[in-house]
Design goal:
By secondary structure, the protein is α+β, with helices and mostly antiparallel strands. It is 41% helix and 13% strand. The strands form 11 sheets. A 7-stranded antiparallel sheet has the order 25-24-23-22-28-27-26, with helices on one face. Strand 23 and strand 24 (924-931) form a beta hairpin. It starts with a strand and ends with a helix. About 20% of the residues have low confidence.
């Protein structure tokens, strides 16, 4: 029973204490005046009566009522019902003002009313929440006052304060206050369930479903929630509704449904709250940053940005929303139905309210299902103490990742829930029933909303019944004030003061009565709380447990069995699989169970190897446990780590725990608590089971019968004990309490020991434990994830906190002691251990720790003596001659990266991770080791790359799968497409690793090129370093006088002393690139000034230099092309259009050009010196190739200075140095271009006729007929290259790019064009009207034929004549060719193209490397290889370069000249120019030609190899830009499309690609010939070679190698004469170069030939010895990433050549060079093909063997060239039989002929047969030999002939059948003498001399076939 009201008070406006505008309330009267003992009077009620502040108002307001809630210090809630009405009084303002008018004059502008109204409140304070009853009672008191009823007010108040009602039980109580009123109070049946009326439904109506769910989750996860409304009662209701749906959790933070305005600062409290505030104060709430604001009137919920609300886990959230919408908006479901049901009204509010609560009950039942199985009962008597095992709950529900549930379980509300609902013996309610008995039903129905809805309705019914148990309620009767009394309240008397004595008498009287009445005993139904089904069953349905197949568990079991049976080899093989399996939970559980079986009496002694394996497995198992150990695996291992041990010597035993300490779990307080409580629970359970068994041993049998079902859980036991507790005697009770207490105490001692085992490191002198685990500040650990970062971050913070800087061993002990003490305090206080015991524990702990440290020291000493675990021996790498080790091998692990083959993902055992050593040499970085996987443990893994190719190095930290330690490691990426991820072994000191990095950097970026390996090879490294620094300074300071003299002689001026920043005059421009007029690209290319000073090392005499220059490659090439000789200028014939100029012999005109240049004959050297200033880097146009057929020339230059010679582009804008000069220079420039044009025969022929028609017609006559066809094609090309708007470069609509002339002639593309108006007058100067016309913006219009189409749309013949063709096309950069004027007579035309910037190439290459060699494997579809390749845009860049090159080839082939003038003239220009020559001139596709091409265009013309390759410290920042690699890739693409046109193989290109960055050779070092001469590199090769084994030039090396082995040779080389190649360039035609993808782990890259293949022989020998017992298998497994394919599976020809060599060696003959053998075979083949018009198919083996994978174009190409060749045979023998081979061309050869010797030959059957030749050829008699042993039919010219003419392989013969004579058959031979031989490829027709012979032949062949 409880009082209905505790206090009644009247509060009024306090006139005395009125501050400015702010009134205050004061309590007028209060009853009872003494506080009740059980509920003290709450303070501050005055504030809550008027939450918006006490104010006087001019008009009377209607009476109001609301209930505020106050919470007292014991967190009891007091409900304050406030009834407020307004009383009139004279305005105090006016009275005050009358006295002091003068001063207040200003203020009184507002007219004050004479009468004002003050509020007065009647307040009831109660601990019960009966809102309506309070409203009626206070209303009644007011009515008595207003209507002047006869009842004395004291009686009413006295009755109210003495009314006592029951709290729960569902009874009704009728009360009356003695004023003729009657009320019925209904109590709920169960007061555990909240009473909500219709507040919940109201809340959902105001805010909507999603908003309320947000508030619900926010309240549960402890956020701050603020309600706003202008109604106070609604605020209270909303808060009450929110609390009602949180049931069964209770809100335990600040709860103030109505907060007075004066207390608004409460909102900035840091703790969570639910508070309501009047909307009047909305503005004050705006600046709250972390408060969720729900506006009830507006229906919005505002969540600040910084607040993250964790929502319910899916699918619960979705299901809850669906259910709520079915209740609140039932029409939604049937809104789309054609025949909606007639009434789908939502239920009445009261019912709806309960339905919503039903949904939330259902929701909590699902969230908390099975929670009772995770309760630990630690004490039963005197009070049950219960703890919840959060980790186990989350683990079993597999919700560890779920944010919401984690937060809820950590929250205060849940802690309250556990302490309230944990006890096993208590009264149960609706929720207990639901969560225990309806789990199955909930699980089955959860997917079907309608079934769930029915369940919810059942729950709703129960909830409704709880609040309204009886349907009919007796009539209320309460007076309300009459209408008139409210209106005429003006005449009202003030509310009377009550007679206190009377009221007090009433109260005392009632109290006395209560005392004498007998106490009401409430019979509470206590019972055992049901637990529901255990959790285990519910998990598997979620499927989140990793599907661990039975096979995996089998593997784990087998491995453990092997270990304990001492079958170590078997165990070793299974180990990797076991470690992989242990990622899964089931396997880890299985491991703990299996190990348990091998423990006998808490001990299991193992030998070293067993111990090692078990520890490894334990570590692997623990590695994946999170710090809270949700699956209980660490818990299961805890007893095991103290059981497994090994003997180490006299009485010293090492236990497993000393090897598994490095895990998160052991330093987590939560884990230890959970473990402790689990153990305590099992001990207490045992304690009571024993006592019961002791008492019941008489009726023992029955008990067994009962107990066999399952064992009694601890909670059931506890419940039983609690039931019996009151019946026990005092003595028994105390005895049980003591027993329990000592049980807990003994466990605490046990745990102090266990914790010291796992927390003290083996080597206590090391401070490791403190660093790696958070022992110091454990508070942060136990409730957060702080400890996740074991690595470094923790270390610093802990050390600084605890001042453990130079820790002694005692500090380790101290921190461990502190940790254990903290643990003991916590658990002992919670589990009620007595103080004496606790003190004893605290004194014991330091001793335990100290003792343990002493035993550990002994173990540690012994463990040092143990032989170290056998680590694989470090293998030494083979070094090149001259290569030296800089750092000896450091033991590392090579970790797998993103390439899948080596990891075994593509099948086969994983080769990586591997253990070995990393070696740093002067040339390479080498890893050599063996795989960790024992199945491939004998293989050797090698990965290496040249140190010069290192592009990126970053530190990583790696966890090795075998060990628990986290290693520091490095990730090294190389531009030879190699990546090494290495982790240093623990034996490598970290400072060593640092030294390694420093050395690596030093070697990677030497200070000067002379520090690179190519220079230092064979010398001692140190010397080089010192020598180099001196040399450099010297060359800067002292200058060789000779050189200056010669420079003066040459140019007559000296610029060496020029100050660095003086603006250069026009004259100097020739020597130094201008600093003022640079555009942005060349600024980034700034050549550093120090390299420009002339240095002393250059040879002094010009003459010697000149003679050397003549020997340079380019000179030989110029002479081959007929571009001029170096004979004396007098004897030089004047009619040669070009000459070799020596103007640059001292490299003064252009630093980066070669010494000899080809320029037009008519241009004097002085002009050149002037012209060169217009071009960037002074790189003026020079000729580099001439088309032998059309005599068009190819020129190269840099782009023009963007701002340099303004006049050259536009009309002169008075450039800085004066117009005249600029003008003259640009004139000379034009003269230069004109001179080039004049050199072309087509121009000089037409120069006499000045009409346009003359021009075009001569052009037509000089170029051959194919030009007609090519012209429109060039147009299409041009559009693509210039990026015509209407088409992307990648699509095929214009198809023009790849087709050959012939194809085009079949379907002429329609090109529209319109004749230009023929200009009148003569050809003037090229410059029209003083304006420069050279560069034309509207480019290629004529070429592309883009003008208006012809009326009829057809291509007219005249079209080609009208389409002008420029003599010279200038390929320029779009960005720089803006604003030129077009001239109608131009003989040159500018083609602007988009150039790929160097930066683009650099970035693209980085992305390409990441795509081809990813650093880690990823399953992200956006990171797949093809996607990354596409994003790198590498293929697009290749496409662009190839496309421009093909365009230039077309232009040159059509008879024009082309000048490539892009960027600085040393990157893209070089690429394009080289590719053009390669495509146009077959010479460059041979070994010599390609070498010459690279030497001429790349080396002599100054491609900046050192700068682009970032080879020195200076160029480190510029980064690696593989321009040359891009060129090689383009060559590779062309090679793929024309495999028969190149003398060199793909391997040759890869070899160059590798060595151009490797710095092994000097060839690709330095940036120009000038620098090479300066260092004396260029001409030293002759006669200066000190050590013959060290090759300084890559070309010499290739030559030598080529003599030894055919690896660089392309067997399919059979070039066409003068063939111009036109490759397809679309992206779809380009292939990724396998150079980027392949690797050979068996021996490292194959490009250092000396290192190949030596170790392998050794391996083979040992294998032979080992296997000699059993039969040998001929099979050989080839691994894609391990073996070198070319070596293991060589192509047929290489194989035969190798066999030949080895056979010759065996016979002791001197072996012939492979090239000679090959040439012999080819010659033999050639003679044979002359005689035999139809080569037999077998002879085509050679060609087709390699061709199968080539693109179809080869076939097309062969047909077009009209050459009969085996490939055509392969395609279709009918067509190919018609084509005849060209005599001079080497056709394929029969390999057989090289072994033939006629004497020893096997001739089974021979004779003369006529064989039919090709179509329209006669039948010829031949001598045929049938050879059974070689299984072939051979034929010869005659019987005596030694040379076999052809072979038919019998293997290919399908049948032999009689034939019929055909046209041209030999006369007078009978019909039966003909027979046909049908092979798989074709049919041969034969004819014998007569029918018997024919029959004999047929039989013989047939018998051969059947024998086979």
């Amino acid at each position: 029973m409880a009082r209905l009201a505790d206090y009644y008070l009247v509060v009024t406006y306090d006139l005395d204490k009125r501050a400015e505008g702010e009134g205050q309330g004061r309590i007028l009267q209060r009853f009872p005046e003494k506080d009740w003992e059980d509920s003290p009077f709450p303070q501050g009620i005055e504030l809550f009566c008027q939450p918006s502040g006490w104010q006087l108002v001019p008009e009377r307001q209607p009476a109001s009522f609301f209930v505020a809630v106050l919470t007292d210090i014991n967190s009891e809630r007091h409900y304050c019902a406030c009834f407020t009405f307004w009383e009139g009084l004279d305005n105090p303002q006016l009275q005050k003002a009358a006295g002091e008018v003068d001063e207040a004059d200003d203020e009184l502008t507002v007219v004050q009313p004479a009468k004002v109204f003050a509020p007065k409140s009647l307040v009831l304070v109660s601990r019960l929440d009966h809102t309506e009853v309070f409203r009626n009672c206070l209303g009644l008191i007011y009515t008595v006052h207003v209507d002047g009823l006869t009842v004395p007010m004291e009686t009413v108040v006295g009755n109210l304060l003495t009314c006592v009602i029951p709290i729960a039980g569902g009874s009704q109580r009728t009360i009356t206050l003695g004023a003729g009123d009657r009320q019925v109070i209904q109590t709920p049946i169960d007061d555990a369930l909240p009473v909500s009326g219709s507040t919940v439904a109201q809340l959902f109506r105001q805010l909507g479903i999603i908003n309320v769910l947000y508030l619900f989750c926010a309240a549960l996860t402890e956020h701050k929630i603020l309600f706003l409304s202008s109604s106070y009662q609604r605020l209270t209701d909303a808060c009450r509704g929110l609390l009602a749906i949180m049931f069964p959790l209770k809100y335990s933070f600040t709860y103030v449904p109505i907060l007075p305005g004066k207390l608004l600062e409460v909102l900035s409290t840091p703790t969570p709250f639910i508070i309501g505030v009047n909307s009047f104060f909305r503005s004050e709430t705006q600046e709250l940053l972390d408060v969720i604001i729900a506006d009830l009137d507006g229906g919005t919920v505002t969540i600040p940005e910084c607040v993250h609300i964790s929502l319910l886990p899916e699918p619960l959230l979705q299901q809850t929303q669906t259910l709520l919408s079915m209740i609140l908006d039932p029409e939604l479901e049937v809104a789309d139905h054609a025949f909606p049901p007639l009434s789908t009204q939502p239920s009445a509010l009261k019912i709806q309210d309960k339905e919503i609560r039903g949904v939330f009950l259902w929701l909590f039942a699902r969230l908390f299902q099975g929670y009772r199985w995770c309760l630990h009962i630690i004490r039963i008597h005197p009070e049950p103490v219960i703890r919840f095992h959060k980790a186990a709950f989350l683990g079993q529900r597999s919700l560890t990742e779920d944010d919401f549930l984690m937060k809820v379980l950590d929250g205060m509300a849940f802690a309250g829930f556990v302490s309230e609902r944990g006890p096993p013996y208590r009264a149960t309610d609706l929720f207990d029933d639901l969560v225990a008995n309806h789990v199955e039903r909930i699980r089955q129905e959860e997917t079907c909303p309608h079934k769930v809805m029915n369940h919810v309705k059942e729950l709703a019914e129960k909830l409704f019944k709880n609040e309204n148990p009886y349907p009919a309620v007796a009539m209320h009767k309460v007076q309300r004030p009459s209408e008139n009394s409210q209106n005429n309240a003006r005449s009202q008397t003030p509310f009377p003061m009550l007679d206190e004595v009377t009221v007090e008498l009433f109260i005392d009287h009632a109290a006395a009565k209560l005392k004498t009445a007998p106490p009401v005993v409430k019979a509470e139904l206590m019972g055992m709380v049901p637990s529901g089904p255990p959790l285990g069953d519910t998990v598997d349905r979620n499927g989140n447990v990793m599907a661990n197949s039975a096979r995996r568990l089998e593997v784990v079991r087998n491995c453990i069995t092997y270990i304990f049976e001492n079958k170590m080899l078997e165990a070793k093989k299974l180990m990797p699989a076991v470690l992989r399996a242990l990622k899964g939970r089931a396997a880890r559980v299985c491991l703990t169970q299996e190990l348990n079986q091998h423990v006998l009496q808490n001990r299991a002694v193992l030998d070293d190897q067993q111990f090692d394996y078990i520890v490894r497995m334990m570590n692997c198992t623990l590695q994946d446990c999170s710090h809270i150990d949700e699956h209980g695996i660490a818990a299961a291992l805890l007893p095991l780590v103290t059981a497994f041990c090994r003997k180490m010597g006299a009485g010293i035993t090492q236990f497993a725990y000393s090897c598994v300490q490095e895990h998160m779990v052991w330093a987590t307080m939560q884990f230890w608590e959970a473990m402790f409580y689990t153990d305590v629970q099992s001990h207490i359970r045992a304690l009571y089971l024993e006592t019961e068994e002791g008492e019941q041993h008489n009726n023992h049998d029955e008990r067994d019968g009962l107990g066999d079902g399952r064992e009694i859980s601890a909670l059931e036991l506890a419940s039983e004990q609690s039931r019996l507790w009151p019946t026990l005697s005092k003595e028994l009770q105390t005895e049980r309490v003591q027993k329990e207490e000592s049980t807990v105490f003994s466990q605490a001692i046990h745990y102090a020991n266990r914790m010291s085992y796992l927390l003290l490191p083996l080597d206590t002198s090391k401070n490791r434990m403190l660093r790696s685990t958070g022992l110091v500040d454990v508070e942060s650990v136990s409730n957060s994830y702080v400890t996740n970062s074991i690595a470094g971050s923790m270390a610093e913070s802990y050390d600084t906190e605890s001042g453990f800087e130079d820790a002694e061993s005692s500090d380790v002990a101290n921190s461990v002691v502190r940790f254990i003490n903290r643990f003991v305090d916590k658990v002992c206080n919670e589990s009620g251990v007595t103080n004496e015991h606790l003190k004893a524990l605290h004194t014991m702990i330091p001793d335990i720790v100290q003792m343990h440290i002493e035993t550990l020291d002994a173990v540690h000493r012994e463990s040092k003596r143990l032989p170290p675990i056998q680590k694989p021996k470090l293998l030494r790498p083979t070094l090149l001659p001259g290569e030296e080790l800089v750092m000896d091998g450091m033991r590392v692990h090579l970790i797998p990266d993103g390439r899948e083959e080596a990891m075994g993902l593509m099948g086969g055992p994983p080769l990586l991770p591997a253990e070995g050593a990393i070696f740093l040499t002067t040339y390479r970085l080498i890893f050599k080791g063996t795989p960790n996987d024992p199945l491939v443990g004998e293989q050797v893994v090698t990965r290496s790359f040249p140190i010069a190719s290192l592009t990126k190095e970053k530190r990583i930290s790696v966890t090795l799968p075998m060990d628990q330690f986290i290693q520091e490691g490095l990730q090294l990426r190389s531009c030879t497409f190699q990546l090494m991820k290495i982790a240093f072994d623990e034996e490598v000191a970290s400072d060593l690793a640092e030294i390694f990095r420093k050395h690596m950097h030093k070697l990677r970026y030497p200070q000067h090129v002379q520090g690179t390996f190519a220079f230092t090879v064979g010398q001692c490294g140190k010397m080089v370093v010192e020598h180099k620094t001196k040399d450099k300074n010297q060359s800067l300071k002292t200058l060789s006088k000779n050189l200056v003299k010669s420079a003066k002689r040459t140019i007559g001026r000296q610029y060496v002393t020029r100050k660095k920043y003086s603006p250069p005059t026009w004259e100097n421009r020739s020597s130094f690139q201008s600093e003022l007029d640079e555009d942005e690209i060349s600024v980034s290319e700034e050549v550093d000034q120090s390299s420009l000073t002339l240095s002393s090392t250059m040879r002094s005499s010009d003459r010697q230099t000149m003679s050397n220059v003549v020997e340079r490659a380019c000179c030989r090439d110029y002479q081959r092309l007929g571009l001029g000789t170096l004979s004396n200028s007098l004897t030089r014939s004047k009619n040669e259009p070009f000459r070799i100029s020596t103007v640059n012999r001292m490299y003064t005109v252009c630093r980066s050009y070669p010494g000899l240049l080809i320029v037009p004959q008519s241009i004097p050297d002085t002009t050149i010196q002037r012209i060169c200033r217009c071009y960037r880097q002074n790189r003026f146009p020079v000729v580099c190739w001439r088309n032998p057929r059309t005599k068009g020339v190819l020129l190269r230059s840099a782009g023009l200075h963007a701002k340099g010679v303004v006049g050259f582009f536009k009309s002169p804008n008075t450039p800085a140095s004066g117009p005249s000069q600029a003008d003259s220079i640009s004139l000379e420039q034009e003269k230069y271009l004109q001179a080039i044009i004049s050199s072309m025969p087509s121009y000089s022929e037409s120069s006499g006729r000045n009409t346009l028609s003359g021009f075009t017609s001569t052009h037509m006559s000089t170029s051959d007929s194919s030009d007609k066809l090519r012209q429109p094609k060039i147009g299409a090309l041009m559009k693509q290259v210039m990026g015509a708007k209407e088409e992307a470069p990648g699509n095929f609509s214009r198809g023009a790019l790849g087709q050959r002339a012939k194809v085009i002639s079949l379907s002429q593309p329609k090109v529209s064009g319109k004749a230009r108006n023929t200009p009148r007058g003569k050809w003037g100067s090229i410059r029209g009207s003083g304006r420069l016309s050279a560069y034309n913006p509207d480019v290629g219009t004529r070429l592309a034929g883009k003008e208006s189409p012809q009326p009829n749309g057809g291509p007219s013949e005249a079209l080609f004549l009208r389409q002008q063709k420029a003599y010279l096309y200038i390929i320029g950069d779009k960005a720089q060719l803006k604003g030129g004027k077009q001239d109608s007579f131009q003989q040159w035309e500018v083609v602007p193209i988009e150039v790929c910037d160097v930066r683009q190439v650099k970035n693209s290459f980085k992305k390409l490397m990441k795509a081809c060699v990813p650093s880690s494997s990823t399953s992200d579809p956006n990171m797949s290889f093809l996607r990354c390749l596409e994003e790198s845009e590498w293929m697009a860049l290749l496409h662009r370069v190839l496309q421009v090159s093909v365009l230039v080839v077309e232009l040159l082939d059509s008879g024009s000249s082309v000048m490539v003038s892009l960027e600085d003239g040393w990157d893209v220009t070089t690429q394009v120019v080289s590719l053009v020559q390669l495509l146009s001139d077959p010479y460059y596709r041979t070994f010599d030609g390609f070498r010459l091409l690279v030497e001429k265009e790349w080396l002599s013309f100054g491609h900046r190899f050192s700068h682009r390759g970032a080879q020195t410290l200076g160029s480190q920042n510029s980064g690696f830009t593989p321009v040359f690699l891009q060129f090689l890739d383009c060559v590779h693409q062309i090679h793929l499309q024309f495999p028969m046109e190149f003398e060199f193989s793909q391997y040759y290109l890869k070899f160059l690609a590798y060595h151009y960055v490797s710095n092994r050779f000097r060839t690709f070092l330095l940036d120009s010939d000038y620098e090479r001469i300066e260092l004396g590199v260029l001409y030293e090769e002759k006669g200066e070679r000190k050590s013959p084994q060290v090759c300084k030039s890559v070309w010499d090396y290739i030559d030598r190698l080529n003599k030894k082995t055919p690896v660089f040779y392309n067997y399919m080389f059979s070039p066409e004469d003068e063939e111009v190649l036109r490759p397809y360039t679309f992206n779809s035609n380009l292939k990724v170069w396998d150079f980027y993808m392949e690797e050979t782990l068996s021996e490292g890259p194959s490009y250092d030939w000396e290192l190949r293949g030596q170790p392998e022989r050794v391996a083979e020998e040992t294998l032979d010895k080992a296997d000699c017992g059993g039969p040998k298998s001929q099979r050989h497994i080839v691994w894609p990433c391990y073996d070198s394919l070319s070596k293991v599976v060589p192509d047929a020809i290489t194989k035969l050549l190798q066999d030949l060599q080895s056979l010759e060696a065996e016979l002791g003959q001197t072996s012939e060079k492979w090239k000679d053998t090959w040439d012999k075979i080819k010659a033999a083949q050639r003679t044979e093909s002359k005689l035999e018009s139809k080569p037999s198919f077998s002879s085509s083996l050679l060609m087709s063997s390699n061709l199968s994978h080539q693109r179809r174009s080869q076939g097309v190409y062969l047909q077009e060239s009209g050459v009969g060749s085996s490939i055509n045979l392969a395609m279709d023998h009918e067509t190919s039989a018609t084509s005849t081979p060209v005599a001079g061309r080497p056709s394929t050869s029969t390999l057989y002929s090289q072994f033939q010797s006629t004497e020893s030959e096997n001739r089974s059957f021979e004779g003369i047969l006529y064989k039919r030749g090709a179509l329209l050829k006669p039948w010829k008699p031949r001598w045929f030999v049938l050879d059974k042993t070689k299984h072939q039919l051979r034929y010869y010219e005659s019987r005596q002939d030694k040379e076999c003419k052809g072979v038919i392989e019998l293997a290919d013969v399908e049948s032999v059948i009689p034939g019929t004579p055909t046209m041209g058959a030999p006369k007078n031979i009978e019909e039966k003498a003909f027979f046909d031989l049908k092979t798989t490829k074709r049919v041969y027709n034969f004819c014998a001399q007569d029918s018997q012979k024919a029959q004999l032949w047929m039989d013989s062949v047939q018998s051969c076939l059947s024998d086979a």
